[in-house]
């Protein structure tokens, strides 16, 4: 064989090895996004399991605002349905509604001394608040994983391997602006 043939074979071999390294890196990123979503999903399920307990405990202790409780439970159902379908945007929208409803429950509990002093309600609210904080942390990690994945599959030369390998962009988990807005406590108690 000629020297030129060896050079061509060496270049092709190096290119193949480089493509395999890129492919394996993209696979790792894809699975990192999946793992990050699974971590959020576990916390969402835990919170969704706590919500009926909180709602029932509130109902038992007084004629709690039915509309607030129903809003939380409907949002819980919507979030579960969206998560079951893998609809990240749907989860974000439903979670926004649920978090708004939870803010309403918290504000109502704070306004009624008999609810505020109830140990069961305080324990459940504390548990849900802890889960909320954990979800926020995991959401940040998930969105960072998605961002790294999405940037990498668009960068050259990774984009070539990503397209050939069928790698797709992942969706960020975004909540709507209502989530970060303060709860209007005055509105909650308007008749």
What is this structure's SSE topology?
Layout: H1 3-61, H2 66-85, H3 88-111, H4 113-116, H5 119-152, H6 158-165, H7 185-188
Helix pairs in contact: 1-2, 1-5, 1-6, 2-3
Protein model, in words:
The chain has a single domain (about 5-190), classed as de novo design (two linked rop proteins), CATH 1.20.1440.20. The protein is built from 7 helices and no strands. The protein starts with a helix and ends with a helix. Mean pLDDT is about 80; it is low at about 180-190. The protein has about 190 residues and is mainly α. The longest helix has about 60 residues, at about 5-60.
How much is the average pLDDT? 81
**Can you count the helices?**
7
| End-to-end separation | 91 Å
CATH C-level category = Mainly Alpha
Rounded radius of gyration (Å): 24 Å
- Given as residue ranges, the uncertain stretches (5+ residues, pLDDT < 50) are 179-191
Identify the overall geometry.
rod-shaped
**Structure class:** mainly alpha
Strand content: under 5%
């Amino acid at each position: 064989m000629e020297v030129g043939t060896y050079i061509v074979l060496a270049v092709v071999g190096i290119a193949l090895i480089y493509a395999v390294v890129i492919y394996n890196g993209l696979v790792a990123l894809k699975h990192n996004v999946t793992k990050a979503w699974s971590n959020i999903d576990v916390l969402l399920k835990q919170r969704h399991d706590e919500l009926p307990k909180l709602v029932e405990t509130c109902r038992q202790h007084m004629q709690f605002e039915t509309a607030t409780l129903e809003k939380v439970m409907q949002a819980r159902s919507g979030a579960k349905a969206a998560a079951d379908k893998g609809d990240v945007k749907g989860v974000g929208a439903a979670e926004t509604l649920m978090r708004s409803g939870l803010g309403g429950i918290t504000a109502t509990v704070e306004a009624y001394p008999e609810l505020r002093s109830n140990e069961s309600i305080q324990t459940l609210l504390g548990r849900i608040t802890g889960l909320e904080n954990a979800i926020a942390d995991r959401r940040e990690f998930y969105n960072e994983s998605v961002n790294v994945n999405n940037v990498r599959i668009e960068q050259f030369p990774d984009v070539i391997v990503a397209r050939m390998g069928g790698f797709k962009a992942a969706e960020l988990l975004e909540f709507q602006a209502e989530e970060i807005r303060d709860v209007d406590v005055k509105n909650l108690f308007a008749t």
